[in-house]
Design brief:
This protein has six helices and no strands. It is an all-alpha fold. It has one domain: Arp2/3 complex 21 kDa subunit ARPC3.
Length: about 160
């Protein structure tokens, strides 16, 4: 069951993000479904599964995008691993902690992609892009993560077996 769910995530999230969410994005902000999925899988199941799912989700994103090769793969793998590591060290994981973890990793991922896409960019340009690009993206990713976390913990028999 879990393997089928993970394979379905790998095969469906990237097309869903590029086709459906491209037309219904509020204020031009699209959630990064692969980042959210890698983070929540690591958060709910552990760092090893988060790392593996992040690797495959990032790899599929790299296949279908024009970004730098391996950048999504490395970023999503790290997000899945560190989300699992953070969740393992939390006393009580809840939706607000999932929101915070996803929002922080969304900002991190945004900074990595902003710096890698604009060679020669200084820290001032990154700081200018923070309130207009990175912060709304991180907040929106966090809100989507809260909804996904709620669904995952309410509709599964046991959240740790997800």
């Amino acid at each position: 069951m879990k393997t089928g769910l993970f394979v379905g995530c790998i095969l469906l999230l990237v097309p869903l993000q590029t086709t459906v969410l491209g037309s219904i994005s509020p204020f031009g902000i699209r959630p990064d479904l692969c980042l959210i999925a890698a983070c929540l899988i690591g958060f709910l199941t552990g760092q090893v599964q988060g790392l593996i799912m992040g690797f495959f989700l990032g790899f599929v994103q790299d296949l279908f995008s024009a970004s730098d090769l391996w950048l999504n793969t490395i970023t999503k793998s790290g997000v899945g691993f560190f989300a699992g590591l953070i969740a393992r060290n939390l006393a009580n994981a809840a939706s607000h902690s999932a929101f915070l973890v996803v929002a922080v990793f969304s900002v991190f991922s945004g900074v990595v992609f902003m710096v890698s896409s604009r060679v020669g960019m200084d820290i001032g340009d990154v700081l200018l892009g923070f309130p207009s690009i990175l912060l709304p993206q991180a907040l929106f990713d966090g809100l989507v993560a809260i909804a996904a976390y709620w669904v995952a913990t309410r509709w599964t028999p046991e959240a740790s077996s997800f």
